Each structure stands twice: as C-alpha cells, then as structure tokens.
Fold:
Amino acid sequence: MPGEYEPHEKCWMLWPERPDNWRLNAAPAQKAFSQVAQAISKFEPVAMGVSKHQLETARNALPPEIEIVHIESDDAWIRDTGPTFVKNDNNDVRGVNWDFNAWGGLDGGIYFPWDKDTGVARNVLTHEKIDQYKACLILEGGSIHTDGQGTLITTEECLLNPNRNPDLSKIQIENHLKEYLNVEKIIWLGKGVFMDETDGHVDNLCCFIKPGEILLHWTDDKTDPQYEISCDAFDRLAGSVDAKKRKLKIHKIHQPGPLYMTEEESLGVEKRPNVAPRNEGNRLAGSYVNFYIANGGIVMPLFDDPHDKAAMEKIKTLFPDRIVTGIYAREILLGGGNIHCITQQQPGV
Ligand code: KQY
Structure:
C-alpha cells in the first residue's frame, strides 16, 4: 500500500444524502463535499459516487470536471467503504475489498442496514477495471495508515474491538494486514480521538507526513481526556522504530475546540431507529489531522476556531512543496468524520 503522499491517479468520493445523519436533508453537507471535491480537483481528477436518485442534484452542484459515477451506498465514507489500493513493483494496481459492518455492526455500529456500503469497493474497482482481493477481515480504511515503506499504524481501540473481528487474535489480524498490504511492521497505538464514533480511527489521531515522520493530534489541556490519549500515542510512537529501523520524528498539532453539537444542528437531523442519534451537546471528534494529501496539495479541515490559523501554518511548514487549501468542514464533522474520511486515493504512476 503506497503512502498517501505518493502520486495519485485520482481521488474517489461519495455524495452525502441520508437525512438521519446529515442535517437539513444533507444540503449543507453537500455544499461542503462539493467544496472539498473542487479543492482536490485543482490537483488531481475527482470521481464522485452518487446514488441514482441524487444524480441530477449532484450534477447541478458539481462542476463538469468532477466525474460522476453511479454508485449506491448507505453513507458517504469512502475511506472506509471503498477499496484500499495496492501497487506492485511493475506499477500494477489492485484493490483490497475488506469486509465492512458500519463501524461495529449490531454491537455499537452507527447504522443498520449497511448492505449498499458493502458493494462500494467492488463497484469502484469494476468501474476502473481493476482486479480485487476479497479480504476476510472487517476493516475500515480510516483505521490504518501506511508509510509506503513497510510500516503501518493503527489503534487497538478499533482493530482489537470485539465488534470488528472477535474470532481473530492480534497476531492473526497483524498477519492479514501484512499479507494484504505488504507491510512488515505494525505500530499499535491505544485509543483514537476522544469520543470518535469509529472506535478510534487512526486517521483522526495521527498520520505519516513522510516516511519516518508523524503528525499527532494534541492538546495542552491536562484536564481534557484527550490529553492522556495523545500522551499515550506519543510515548508509543517515540518508543517505536519503523520497518526501516528508523526512530520516528513526531510533530504535534493542537486540536480545535473542544467542539460540541448545538441544539439547532441536532434538530436538523432526522431521528430514525437503527441509526446513532446526533444529540445536542455531543462532543465532536474534530481534528486537523483528518486532511487529504493530493498530488501537490493538501486539503485540510478548518472549524472557524481560534486554533485554525496555527494549524494551517503548521501544515504549510510540514508540506513546503504542496499548496495547502483549508475548507470550512464543520458540516462534515457533524456527520462523524472529516476530509480524510470522505476521500480515497487511487494510486498512479
Ligand atoms: O474516520 C473515518 N474514516 C470515517 C468516519 C465515519 C463516521 C461515520 N459516521
């Protein structure tokens, strides 16, 4: 699995629509997704998977350079439901199609049913005429990051959660990751961002900015439960070497907020059975780490928060050769994730 900072052929997204997750019939989320797609399309082609009955709405909302592909899904998190692309030394690209259970199935998952989501990876790969490996492992793409040089980072909170693969041991899970992604070294972190409904996806907590260097979600507030989580992640990363036996350099980026869902935002979401409620006062798992690395660019979330300016400066310093674009992304955060979670890179040459 290449690092995200390696060249891409294109970026995949899915169009949001479910009114029991996205407020006001998903109109504000659709605007934010459209802004993300347009920002990424300045750097690489973007394909948007859209359900049949949203085709016209999406076409009207998106500029012509965004390719629209008919794909049915239960929600719009293609990082998790799309394929994980892998590439061999001859530059042949294939896709890993993981099993998916909506972040925990009937034991704490976010919605039921999720049958359309389970077809997303296959449909993307069929559209691209790319062969797939069907993996017998429940895994979401947001729960792993690789450096493209044999190292993978993940969290115990997610991958060892009994609501994912209760019959597999830690070693068996490691072996699946090694086999499908061709990694040699797995660095296990403890928990993800406080109150992250994905059971602690690593893509909200930290990421590789290049081989050997990590950017970590941080807070200086010792009274915030996030402090202990980030300190634990820091200690584990600092105590690890990667697959190439390098010590990792760790950069910190201060979290926004803490951010909470307002009454108005909550009231805009339809309440339905079998779907996790979006309640007023819920702490939102906002993180600047949840950005997308495009060819020559970074598209990062902003929250109209006092930490936005410093976060953007930090990302610009860490990626001096890329153009950094900030998108006001609270509407994406209200749905439970952010820009990295709604994108999936397809590697190129
Ligand atoms: O972290 C991600 N990769 C996805 C977030 C999904 C949230 C579902 N509501």
